[in-house]
Design goal:
The chain is built from 20 helices and 29 strands. The protein is α/β, with parallel strands linked by helices and 661 residues long. A hairpin with a 5-residue loop joins strand 4 and strand 5. Bound molecules: 5'-O-[(S)-ethoxy(hydroxy)phosphoryl]adenosine.
Length: 661
């Protein structure tokens, strides 16, 4: 029954992406918030719009950090490579630690840490500095020196940021590999960067079970001849294999080390770290981030977007293995002398409200998490955390995927108690820092919109040919001016760097995301361009159809993909997770299809709906639409080893084909 689609005229201009969803709700910043906000003058946007203004802004922000030698040139932009704060020398760990201790903040808490089994630790800035110095000395004692690459494969324990800071202190670039990745993934990353040292742990806890990291690290290291040393934190106490020529216990190696260590003076453009990101092809890209610009960019965005005050207790719930953790658990927050929370385990374990218990325990004031987590909590329902006191919260953030307006509104209402501004922050591993976001004391927000480019950031939305799409239309997101924390390339692969980001629209950075702007110029991210569906010549974003589904009271989460269709080219196939208390049925399926049709129009009406208890996600929580497309096409499945729950694929496959029109 493809008749609905048949009656739809092909789009006049196939180059852009349809603008279907209209969201009318607006949320002005609460007056009390504005009165105390760090950024409260809307003039900041006009001031930073010109080339001169944006340079003055970053030059001013750079004064907030300590330079060993001052920089002489703000920006050297030789497309596609930027150098920022040219000639400057600094050390990031000294900026994150020594500086604060010297300023009398040694006793201030840097991290409250909570282990999944219920153990906890508190580290002050003075303690974090001492531990970092011990580890820096330990690494030096192993012969690790400036420029040597160190792989870090750890659970979310305090030794993880300590290891990163120790590397930064001695100028050894780190390559953090998320602890949920396999030995294969680790080996590939070690090999690509030729890491000489690996820092890991015997294991960590996840949903009540110990994950044996050392065993996977052994497997990887046995294939990686570049590795000379491995430092192992004892976390679980489980037995591990031991290679005495290579392996060292962290506690033994650091015990007798001095608690001071000279920080290595680093050039602004010295490599700080590599972080691998998968993208669409198999071989991960080693994204390069350097020192001066990255520190200024992350510190500035963190301070202004999260409105950081000295008394805040800030909780970014991401894993440090992702860029969000690098920029907004470690470097940005520590540069701002923030008190943070780090939690080892799953946010819903052992109780569904574990996250809320932790937020209440430490009186968290700021929460920064991902739409996938918000939708999971929505699915459980707000009663699950009704007993937890979340009254300390004053600001909420979202990152990682487009947030459906309904999930945004739920977050604002039930977690934020209708009093906390929500900042939906768009950025990427490659961008290093948040680029599109509200400023909570200035911006009137709209649920589902990341609102405007950060001051000094110049973004645009273009069509296939690179022409600017007028307000009200959709197309491809581009960035038109360099920014301090931008990537400095793909490690060892210049051609791929140019090809991926700089060749589609010469002179402009291609983000790979669809985006529309409404009549007021608000930016609405529409998902990866690879996922855009083409129905009867209309290019429809997955995000808008998913958001329309999530706006139905029965739906907690939805994923849509285009499936080959003989009449319309592609037809929309939807996977739907229901909120607790709702039952899957043909009637509900029909109702949902009708609902989408009403909310955003007939052309976006899904042809098929499949109810599912869960969805395949990457380890960082992004829906794997490529896999869902394969299921929808009933083709062979791709590699499922990176799924958060491989079992779901079986369920989805089993159910595939049911719920047919
Ligand atoms: C998506 C995570 C919409 C987007 C920091 C981007 C978002 C990719 C948002 C980068 C957001 C991230 N709204 N989409 N607020 N934040 N994305 O490298 O597709 O893990 O290109 O960096 O996530 O993911 P990455």
């Amino acid at each position: 029954m493809a008749t609905d689609h048949e009656r739809i005229e092909p789009a006049a201009e196939a180059a852009t992406i349809e603008n279907l969803l209209r969201e009318e709700r607006t949320f002005a910043p609460p007056a009390a918030f504005v009165a105390a906000a760090t950024a409260h003058d809307p003039d900041i946007y006009a001031r930073t719009a010109t080339d001169e203004g944006f340079r003055a802004f970053w030059a001013q922000e750079a004064k907030r950090i300590d330079w060993i030698e001052p920089w002489t040139e703000l920006l050297d932009w030789q497309l596609p490579y930027a150098k920022w704060f040219v000639g400057g020398k600094l050390n990031i760990s000294a900026n994150c630690l020594d500086r604060h201790v010297a300023n009398g903040l040694g006793g201030k808490v840097a991290y409250y840490w909570e282990g999944e089994p219920g153990d906890s630790r508190t580290l002050t800035y003075a303690q974090l500095l001492e531990e970092t110095c011990r580890m820096a000395n330990a690494l030096r004692s192993l012969g690790v020196k400036k420029g040597d690459k160190v792989a870090i494969y750890m659970p979310m324990i305090p030794e993880l940021p300590i290891a990163m800071l120790a590397c930064a202190r001695i100028g050894a670039p780190h390559s953090v590999v998320f602890g949920g990745f396999s030995a294969d993934a680790l080996a590939g990353r070690i090999d690509d960067a030729q890491c000489t040292t690996v820092i890991t742990a015997d294991g960590g806890y996840r949903k009540g079970a110990a994950v044996h990291l050392k065993a996977s690290a052994d497997d990887a290291m046995n294939r990686s001849p570049s590795v000379k040393h491995c430092v192992v934190v004892r976390r679980t106490g489980d037995p591990v294999d031991w290679n005495p020529d290579r392996d060292h216990w962290w506690h033994e190696l650091t015990a007798a080390q001095p608690t001071t260590a000279e920080p290595e003076p680093m050039d602004s453009e010295d490599l700080l770290y590599l972080l691998y990101t998968s993208g669409t092809t198999a071989k991960p890209k080693g994204i390069m981030h350097t020192t001066g610009g990255y520190l200024v960019g992350t510190a500035t965005t963190h301070r202004l977007i999260f409105d950081i005050k000295p008394e805040d207790v800030y909780w970014c719930m991401a894993d440090i293995g992702w860029v969000t953790g690098h920029s907004y658990i470690v470097y940005g927050p520590l540069a701002n002398a923030t008190t943070g929370i780090i939690y080892e385990g799953a946010i819903d374990f052992p109780e569904k409200d574990r996250w809320a218990q932790i937020a209440a325990k430490y009186r968290a004031t700021i929460l920064y998490t991902a739409p996938t987590a918000i939708r999971a909590l929505m699915k459980y329902g707000h009663d699950e955390f009704a007993r937890d006191d979340l009254s300390s919260l004053r600001l909420l953030g979202s990152v990682g995927e487009p947030i459906n307006p309904e999930a945004w509104a739920w977050y604002w209402k039930y977690i934020g108690g209708e009093r906390c501004p929500v900042v939906d922050t768009w950025w990427q591993t490659e961008t290093g820092m948040i680029l599109i976001t509200p400023l909570p004391g200035i911006t009137t927000t709209k649920p589902g919109s990341a609102t405007f480019p950060f001051p000094g950031i110049k973004a645009g939305v273009v069509d296939e040919a690179g022409n600017s799409v007028p307000l009200g239309g959709g197309g491809y997101l581009v960035l038109e001016r360099p920014w301090p924390a931008m990537l400095r390339g793909i490690y060892g692969d210049h051609d791929r760097y140019v090809e991926t980001y700089w060749s589609r629209y010469p002179g402009r950075y291609f983000a790979g995301d669809g985006c529309k702007r409404d009549d007021e110029g608000y930016y609405w991210l529409l998902g990866r361009v690879d996922d855009v569906m083409n129905v009867s010549g209309h290019r429809i974003s997955t995000t808008e159809v998913e958001s329309a589904l999530v706006s139905h009271p029965a739906v907690a989460e939805a994923a849509v993909v285009g499936r080959t269709d003989p009449i319309t080219g592609q037809a929309i196939f939807s996977y739907v997770i229901l909120r607790s208390g709702f039952e899957a049925s043909d009637a509900l399926g029909a109702d949902l299809r009708e609902h989408v049709s009403e909310v955003i129009g007939k052309l976006a009406r899904p042809k098929q709906i499949m109810f599912t208890p869960d969805l395949p996600k990457t380890r960082s929580g992004k829906i794997m639409r490529r896999l869902l497309r394969d299921v929808a096409e009933q083709r062979a499945l791709g590699d499922v080893t990176t799924l958060a729950d491989a079992g779901i694929v079986a369920t989805i496959r089993e159910q595939s084909g049911r719920g047919e029109d």
